[in-house]
Amino acid sequence: MSDEYENKTGYQAQSSETISSGGRGGGSGTVPDADHVRPAEIPEQDLYHGHSFITKWVFCQDAKVIGVQYFLLATFTGIIGLILSWLMRLQLGFPEAAGFMTAEHYYQFVTMHGMIMVVYFLTALFLGGFGNYLIPLMVGSRDMVFPYLNMVSFWSFFVAVVVLLASFFVPGGPTGAGWTLYPPQAILEGTPGSGMGILLMCISLILFVAGFTMGGLNYMITVLQARTRGMTLMRMPLTVWGIFTATILAMLAFPALLVGGLMMTLDNVLGTSFFMPTILKAGEVLEYGGGSPILFQHLFWFFGHPEVYIVALPAFGIVSDLISVHARKNIFGYRMMVWAIVGIGGLSFFVWAHHMYVSGMNPWFGFFFATTTLIIAIPTAMKVYNWILTLWRGNIRLNVVMLWCLGFIVTFVNGGITGLFLGNVTVDVPLSDTYFVIAHFHMVMGIAPLMVIMGAVYHWFPLVAGRFLDEKLGKWHFWLTFLGAYSIYFPMHYLGFIGVPRRYFEMYDSPYVTSAVGMNEFISVAAFIVGAAQLILIYNIIRTLKIGKPAGHNPWQANSLEWLTPSVPPEHGNWGEKLPVVHRWPYDFSVPGAKEDFITQTTPPSEVTETEVEKT
Amino acid sequence: MHPGIIFFLVVLGSLLFHIFTPWYWTDIASNWVGMDDTITLTFWVGGGVFIAVCLFMVYCVVKFSYKKDRRAEYKPDDKKLEKILTVATTLGVAALLAPGLIIWNQFVTVPKNALEIDVMAWQWGWQYRLPGEDGKLGTTQIVNINDNNPFGINLDDPYGKDDVLIQSDLINLETNQPVKILLRSVDVLHNWYVPQFRAKMDAVPGIVTYYWFEPNKIGEYEVLCAEYCGVGHYAMRGGVEVQSTEDYNQWISEQETFNDYIAKQENIELENKKIAKNNNFLLNKETYKEE
Ligand code: HEM
Ligand SMILES: [Cu+2]
Ligand SMILES: [Cu+2]
Q1: How far apart are alpha carbons B276 and B291 in whole angstroms?
Q2: I need a surface site. Which of A89, A276, A344, A515 has the fewest CB within 10 A?
Q3: Among A85, A155, A10, which residue's Cα sits nearest to residue A526?
Q4: Whole-number Å distance between alpha carbons of A472 and A268
């Protein structure tokens, strides 16, 4: 396909001569015709090189370092979220042992846990962490296109986290409004942290969105503009597709959260009434009137539903690549996978009100949103089929990375199926706002993406640190986490059938059915074990950094560019002298006739003439 | 143990748990069996898919685990298979959606003969109002609410005077009589939910929301608040007693109407005035003494 582009513009012909900084790979004269790749269209990027410790490691402009910074800070907030979940599970399973905890505390913990896990942990980790580290490497660029902005992005995230955590120390404590922050309750007395707490939460979110927008622009434009020669969109690894699409979703969805947060802050501070109707509180009519609480819910979920996919799409992309590499087989139906990612992303803007079936919005909306929601299940199911079909007749390495992928498939399918319950209006009515919902979304957007994150950590650690994480420890880590998390959330669905509402400080024990106290204790114990099991990973990382087995180049025999850097771990600028030139998609595994069971993206066709490779 | 076997046991365990669980829904006490049926259907279809996908995965993992001298198959895609799977999935999804929408249609279509009940929520409690002899509820406004008018009924609304006021979180319903629950809240969101009736809806300040059901089983049930409403949320309970027609008529005849209430309040006010006068008198005397 490349031949048709042959030097059509004068600029390109000229550019290979005038721009001397590092070769641009074979000009058309010296290589065989089959290997010809369209020349670059833009000059190479000038990079900022840090010299002091501060510019190299703190206010750093290298996307890889920023990625690691994002990763570490997100993980830190994630650990806080995890500790909060322990405290909640202590209260729910063993209330006598949690005597120190009041209802106020519990609600503050629920809120901070939910918000931290969804926004400050998962979103920041997938887009800020993996996005920054992997996008430039995978598309073959030297860095993000706006390195300075990228640095500012991380530091706004940092300030957002500081503001968020500061709210633990202000009078009244952090907000206890639930992570959905529904007004009027969020800004009225009767909810913990209704003064300073909610204010700081809104400020922190605004900072997060601002920082995220800077990062997001970078991810999008890097993917669109800075791909290396030969890296057509349809040759990008699915990881990049997932992160790229998620970023577009985020750019469209976060503004809704932003305005919702701003308007609520105005209601809170200046006494406007965007979301505040006439309210009677302690016998007095407040000075609000005419606003609509449901309007906030629309804004929130217009953000909130795509948010689910902002977390899920990168996970989809990453897991596709991990499965393909470790099953030694091309991802099944790559085109379908790409279209499914894009399609899911687009559809995800038309389903938000499935969170609002019983919110009091006009019930006739139910027909529309149930239909769109169930339609979205179709491309999602296709993705699942393609993952398992990739395993079919593969040559599957059952290492730790693959285990996490399998764990992902099980938990994701489980959570996806319960999504069919909740999306189908009628079925949602009895189940909404019960523990069925808690179980559903933890399974599908808590545990499943977490499985992918863990798989990704074991997969790319040898690249980032140059050493393999220990497999044996990894297996313990996997099985404790997977089996533990599954036994937390699988039985929890049944609490929802009993009718136990969520956000209950004291777990409701229905007198009409068998007591569920035992189940709750069991769930709590499992939660403690899962949390503690994460220490294995931390130990494994520290140990590996010291004495881990060196990984060397391309240790998994993968095809994508990030493994093909001249040095491992990759250095600033990624590619040394020459940018890589791409000749194929990243999934040429086990091609018949090839010497090895993989053909890297940079292998030119003339080197593998004997193979029956499909043209990509 | 081979990982495939453990994954297999996880699937098997899930299935067995589902079959033998002692924790499942409460006995239904309303007309919404359709909801239960749709759930059961979704369990069959969804559970089937879950098991099929997992078992296929387990099979692959066991059958195709790594061997040095073997190569994976090279087959970028299979258009036909993809088409079959898309069509099959679409059919499955449609099969779930259809009954869902049919029942939803019933849910949003309130029967003509439904008895309207005003359910009023606040942090943290409930109270109820039933139409009086005219069969209609009077209109209300939050700003009207005070000790003499706990429901904020518009005093110039002729329908309001005979409304039956139940200033308690317990309410009685007549069996096999459809009811339309009209929800309102004076402060934040709440949700009036009885697990046995299956249905629920948020109460939203500023507007009146509704849903309907037909209780069909005599007994006492608990009302749970199912929308987070602040620190008291978890303790915000109420109760429903579903009664036979005779018992219900008996009960309703004993409840006071808004007119009764006004009269009672006026009496109390008179009494209070008398007491206050008396107190003032005593108080004055004492101040006088101290001086
Ligand atoms: C094993 C780890 C985890 C445990 C034990 C856990 C436990 C809990 C508990 C006990 C609640 C409160 C339920 C209630 O009272 O309504 C909760 C709520 C929540 N969790 Fe988790 N969780 C975990 C991981 C996660 C992850 C990874 C996410 C990321 C998506 C997450 C997101 C949420 C959200 C959004 C809420 C709702 C908060 C709210 O109701 O406002 N959790 N979790
Ligand atoms: Cu959603
Ligand atoms: Cu409540």
Answers
A1: 22
A2: A515
A3: A85
A4: 53
Domain assignment present for residue A279? The answer is: no
Which residue in this structure is represented by tokens 């130990």? Answer: A539
Q: What's the pLDDT at A610?
A: 74
Last residue of a domain, one of A211, A236, A261: A236
What CATH number does the domain containing A153 carry? 1.20.210.10
Q: What is the pLDDT confidence band of residue A576, given thresholds at 50, 70 and 90? A: confident
CA A592, chain centre distance (Å): 35
Taken in order A538, A540, A545, A551, the sign of the CA dihedral is: negative
List the one residue out of B202, B185, B232 whose CA is nearest residue A191: B232
Reported as type and span, the H/E element at residue A281 is: strand A280-281
- Domain's final residue, options A236, A256, A280: A236
From chain A residues 496-515, the ones with a CB under 8 A of any chain B CB are: 497-499, 501, 503-506, 508, 510-514
Mark which residues 518-537 of A lie under 8 Å from B by CB.
519
- With contact defined as beta carbons under 8 Å apart, do A370 and A352 qualify? no
Find, among A158, A78, A49, A56, the residue nearest to A531 by Cα.
A78
Instruction: Give residue-wise pLDDT tens across range B75-104.
Output: 887 889 989 999 999 999 999 999 999 999
Whether A470 and A538 have beta carbons less than 8 Å apart is answered as: no
Across the beta sheet with B170-174, the strand order is B170-174, B237-243, B219-225, B190-193, B202-203
In a domain, A528, yes or no: no
Q: What is the ipTM of this complex?
A: 0.91
β-pair partners for B210: B182
Q: How big is the CA angle at A140 (ends A247 and A402), to the nearest 5 degrees? A: 70
Nearest ligand for residue A300 CA: 2
Taking the alpha carbons at both ends of chain B, their separation in whole angstroms is 94
In a domain, A98, yes or no: yes
Question: Which domain range does residue A610 map to?
Answer: 552-616
The count of domains in chain A is: 2
Q: Which residues 6+ apart lie within 8 Å of B155 measured at CB? A: B144, B149
Interface probe, candidates A426, A451, A523, chain B, greatest B C-beta count within 10 A: A426
Q: In the prediction, which pLDDT does A426 show?
A: 87
pLDDT of residue B259 exceeding 90: no
Q: Kindly write down the DSSP assignment for every residue of chain B, as one continuous string.
A: --HHHHHHHHHHHHHHHHHH-S--PPPP-SSTHHHHHHHHHHHHHHHHHHHHHHHHHHHHHHHTB--TT---------HHHHHHHHHHHHHHHHHHHHHHHHHHHHHHS--TTPEEEEEEEETTEEEEEE--TTS-PPPB-GGG-BTTBTT-B-TT-TTTTTPEEE-SSEEEEETT--EEEEEEESSS-EEEE-GGG----EE-TTS-EEEEE---S-EEEEEEE-S--STTGGG-EEEEEEE-HHHHHHHHHTSPBHHHHHHHHHHHHHHHHHHHHHHHHHHHHHHHHH-
Name all residues whose Cβ lies below 6 A of ligand 1.
A 85, 88-89, 110-111, 113-114, 117-118, 122, 178-179, 438, 442, 445-446, 450, 485, 488, 502-503, 527, 530
Q: Which of B66, B78, B6 is nearest to A410 (CA)?
A: B6
Nearest-angstrom CA–CA distance, A603 and A35: 9
* Count of beta carbons in the 10 Å neighbourhood of residue A195: 17
State the distance from the centre of ligand 2 to the C-alpha of B197, rounded, in angstroms.
Answer: 25
Q: Which residues of B touch A353 (CB under 8 A)?
A: none
Pocket test for ligand 1, best of A117, A191, A440, A493 (most atoms within 8 A of CB): A117
DSSP-derived pairing of the beta strands A467-468 and A280-281: unpaired
- Nearest Cα residue to B138 out of B111, B108, B169, B116: B116
- pLDDT, tens digit, for every residue of A462-495? 999 999 999 999 999 999 999 999 999 999 999 9
